[in-house]
What does this fold into?
Amino acid sequence: MALERATFAISENALELMALDKPDLPSELSGLRMIREGALSNEAMAEHGFPGNTPERLRGAGRISGYNREFGETSSDAARDGFNFVAATVAHLFDNPDTVSSWMTDIFIKDFESNVGESLSSGQQLISVSRLEPRGFFDEAVALKVLQGGQAGLMSSTVIDFRVGRILGVAFTGTLGDHERLDLTTQLGLALEKRIVQVVLGGG
It folds into this structure.
């Protein structure tokens, strides 16, 4: 299809244009402020990923690079159960659409599921992982609800991975306590998908 073919003309430099800015966030997340952004090399992904991840494994899986933009709330006033304290969108560039699809199932989902019960680099423990069914995306999409805990208590993440040609879009929300945020994360993901398509087709 034309959109898929158009993603082969995309360079790493375009990824920064795809990650959402503050005005693009759903209204429920409008109180968050940008706390981090930048390119995500395979080296950086491996360093902050699960134990055993290496840049060579990620490159071998077809991943070239990515760009992350993250919004959060650091005020102690927001430290209440059910508060959505962080949200992020990431655009990753892959060799081709097939490697995006393989990544979603063989790395994203399998790595989380195989590390349940393990300690994370953040010092927290990965307590449980549940598969969710995202809807409304143009092509393939998968999602997880991840529960982790530590000295500060429970924190849950809802993560959606979706494919636009050879681009992997990722939408992420983090919530204090044990909560699923599929609807909210879907809003974030659909806004990211729209933005990716605009950039790919030259309207970004």
The mean pLDDT is 94.
